[in-house]
Amino acid sequence: MTSDQITRVCNACIERCEAGSTWPPDFAEFIALVAEAGGGLIGLTVRDVLAEYKRWKNESWRYATSEQFPWRHPVLYHICVEMRREGIERRLMQSEMEKLAALKLARWEKKIAAGFSVPPIRRQIAAPKAPAGPTPAMQMASGKRYVE
Questions:
Q1: What share of the chain is helix, strand, coil (3-state, %, to 5)?
Q2: Can you spell out the DSSP letters for 39-73?
Q3: CA 13, 18, 20: angle at the middle one, nearest 5?
Q4: Can you give the residue ranges of every domain in the chain?
Q5: Are 111 and 105 in contact (CB under 8 A)?
Q6: Shortest CA distance to 47 belongs to which of 86, 11, 20, 21?
Q7: Distance of CA 27 to the CA centre of its chain
Q8: CA angle 44, 5, 58 (to 5 degrees)
Q9: Which residues does 92 contact at the CB level (< 8 Å), separation at least 6?
Q10: Closest residue by Cα to residue 37 from 18, 14, 10
Q11: How far apart are the C-alpha atoms of 47 and 141, rounded to whole Å?
Q12: Do residues 109 and 40 make contact, with C-beta atoms less than 8 angstroms apart?
């Protein structure tokens, strides 16, 4: 575990003590805290994903594209873009967005555990431009048949 992950686990223990849980936690509680606050293979928790998603939603107007946004981790770009698309398509509530973030993060952790790497953040390919010639409607309006 990294020092950041250990700090997260210790902070989670302190929060649980303030909430009334016993100190020290037993082994099962400690393992659950490590799994919850440790961050897995990537070093990110669902809370981190949701915080980055919120930061991106609030600050994305400053950047021309999502690719130019200063992401804290490359996988967050892929997760947040998918979350926004699915959240809009399915009209998800906040609690459903949290579940979606957990699902996307678990999917990426599974991919990384299988040996895949996180693709770099790249600008998307622009759509092909339509030819500048007259459209069929313009040809019909001028009296020409566009299908011969």
A1: 60, 0, 40
A2: -TTTT--HHHHHHHHHHHHHHGGGSSSGGGS--SS
A3: 95
A4: 1-38, 44-123
A5: no
A6: 11
A7: 32
A8: 40
A9: 86, 100
A10: 10
A11: 58
A12: yes
Tokens of 83: 């979350």
Output Rg (C-alpha) for the chain, integer angstroms: 24
This prediction's pTM: 0.66
Q: Is the peptide bond before 24 cis (omega within 30 degrees of 0)?
A: yes
CA angle 140, 141, 142 (to 5 degrees): 90
In the block, tokens 């981190």 appear at 48
Two structure tokens written together for 5 = 């992950």
Element (H, E) at 73: none
What gap in Å lies between CA 116 and CA 106, rounded to an integer? 14
pLDDT in tens, the chain (148 residues): 677 777 877 887 888 888 887 777 777 877 777 777 666 778 888 888 999 999 999 999 999 888 999 999 999 999 999 999 999 999 999 999 999 999 999 999 999 999 999 888 887 777 788 777 777 788 888 887 666 5
Report in angstroms the alpha-carbon separations of 27 from 4, 23, 34, 132: 21, 11, 10, 70
Whole-number Å distance between alpha carbons of 38 and 24: 18
